[in-house]
């Protein structure tokens, strides 16, 4: 079966402002996110890609533009099932204020039981994303062979949920996974089981440097990096 290369979108304006963007329109890459996207073609150079599949949201589409420009023959497909989690009434709110919501404790400690008011549950989010990957695995293998590789550009919580599925982890443990903006995660699927080949690879270790005083709590920084309410 094919190898799936998962790319989280580059850093967005919502990441830097500490807002839970969800599916709100108009959330673009910030300056650093655009630079991350521009570096993506070189990072993936030499890897033959059968196709690129993207979330419909602007920040994912923008992340793939440099790669598509560098590979004019690479087909792009938009897949609604790998769009961001529908955070419902939480979308557009500051992560700092959401930390005081009683639901946030369930999101962090028991996510399989958490559903967002006016939105979807994390369990439903994982199910649709896993179904999308299974369908695309079959499609890519049929058209390009079992050794083919293809790319999906999606969101932090989606990628974490897919990794949890590949590792046979319960969704309640997916908060232990972290994927930074524009990081690359690779899952190689086989007939019997998937193999996690890369996790959150950016080639950049600056995020490990201790922050300066006043840069916010560790939870707030992780939330901005993690991308959604499911951030660790």
TrEMBL record:
Matching SMART domains: PGAM
Record-annotated active site: 9 (tele-phosphohistidine intermediate), 84 (proton donor/acceptor)
Cited Gene3D superfamilies: Phosphoglycerate mutase-like
One Pfam match: His_Phos_1
Gene Ontology molecular functions: phosphatase activity
Region (Disordered): 209-232
Protein origin, superkingdom: Bacteria
Positions annotated to bind substrate: 8-15, 59, 84-87
Any GO CC annotation of this UniProt entry: cytoplasm
NCBIfam families, alphabetized: MSMEG_4193
Protein name: Phosphoglycerate mutase
Source organism (scientific name): Streptomyces chattanoogensis
Lineage: Bacteria, Bacillati, Actinomycetota, Actinomycetes, Kitasatosporales
């Amino acid at each position: 079966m094919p190898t799936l290369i998962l790319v989280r979108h580059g850093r967005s304006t919502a990441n830097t402002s500490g807002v839970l963007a969800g599916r709100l329109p108009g959330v673009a890459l910030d300056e650093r996110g655009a630079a991350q996207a521009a570096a993506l073609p070189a990072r993936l150079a030499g890897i033959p890609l059968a196709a690129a599949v993207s979330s419909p949201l602007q920040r994912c589409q923008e992340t793939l533009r440099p790669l598509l420009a560098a590979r004019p023959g690479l087909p792009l497909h938009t897949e609604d099932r790998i769009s961001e989690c529908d955070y419902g009434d939480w979308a557009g709110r500051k992560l700092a204020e959401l930390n005081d919501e009683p639901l946030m404790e369930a999101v962090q400690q028991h996510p399989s039981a958490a559903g967002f008011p006016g939105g979807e549950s994390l369990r439903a989010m994982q199910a649709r994303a896993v179904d999308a990957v299974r369908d695309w695995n079959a499609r890519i293998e049929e058209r390009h062979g079992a050794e083919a590789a293809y790319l999906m550009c999606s969101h932090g919580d989606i990628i974490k949920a897919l990794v949890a599925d590949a590792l046979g982890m319960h969704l309640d443990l997916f908060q232990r996974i972290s994927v930074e903006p524009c990081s690359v995660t690779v899952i190689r699927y086989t007939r019997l089981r998937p193999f996690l080949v890369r996790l959150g690879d950016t080639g950049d270790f600056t995020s490990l440097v201790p922050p300066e005083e006043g840069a916010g709590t560790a939870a707030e920084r992780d939330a901005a990096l993690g991308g959604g309410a499911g951030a660790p």
